[in-house]
Amino acid sequence: MLRYLPFLLVLALWIYAFIDCLNTPEEEVRGLPKVVWVIIILLFGEVLVGPIAWLVAGRVRRAPAGGSTPSEWHRNHRTTFVAPDDNPEFLHSLREENKKDESLLKDWEADLRRREEELKKREQGGEQA
Q1: DSSP 3-state assignment of 60?
Q2: CA-to-CA separations, 2 to 5, 6, 48, 93, 99, in angstroms, rounded
Q3: Which one, of 56, 64, 63, 65, lies nearest residue 30 by Cα?
Q4: Considering just the CA atoms, what is the radius of gyration of the chain in Å?
Q5: Distance CA 111, CA 114 (A)
Q6: Cβ 8 vs Cβ 14: under 8 Å
Q7: Chunked mean pLDDT (size 10), the chain, 129 residues
Q8: Among residues 84, 82, 83, 79, which one has the least CA distance to residue 67?
Q9: What is the pLDDT of residue 15?
Q10: What is the rounded CA–CA span in Å between residue 74 and residue 78?
Q11: What is the C-alpha to C-alpha distance for residues 40 and 17, in angstroms, rounded to an integer?
Q12: Neighbouring residues of 52: CB distance < 8 A, sequence distance ≥ 6
């Protein structure tokens, strides 16, 4: 089984590069037309030249969304993501939910007290009779 591993890895990279090339919009393809890249991937896939060429030079790669990079420009510019405990809207929504939960709990407690009182009255009425 282990002797088939290199073949399976090459096949997996070949398939990944082919599908990635097909799914990439035409305006994100660099260097050559998309059809030429597909042909290169298919013809030179067994020796890994085609898939590696596609992954390295064929597609425009974007920076990770919200991720940090080592470049100085990125370090000086913060992303717009705010942690939930620093987000005022999220904290306000938690307070609102807490108020709703507290009012519901008070209603349940009042209902429980009322039922307990009714039960006590029934028991007292049954003992007197």
Answers
A1: coil
A2: 5, 8, 20, 55, 61
A3: 56
A4: 33
A5: 5
A6: no
A7: 86 91 88 90 86 86 58 58 80 92 97 96 79
A8: 79
A9: 93
A10: 7
A11: 11
A12: 13, 17
**Total residue length of the chain:** 129
What gap in Å lies between CA 100 and CA 52, rounded to an integer?
A: 57
What's the pLDDT at 82?
A: 73
- Judge whether 62 and 24 are in contact, CB under 8 Å: no
* Residue 45 tokens, joined: 């896939």
Question: 115 is written with which tokens?
Answer: 């039922």
Calpha distance 2→37 (Å, rounded)? 31
Q: Where are the alpha helices (DSSP H) in the chain?
A: 5-23, 34-43, 49-53, 72-76, 88-128
Identify residue 57 by its one-letter amino acid code: A
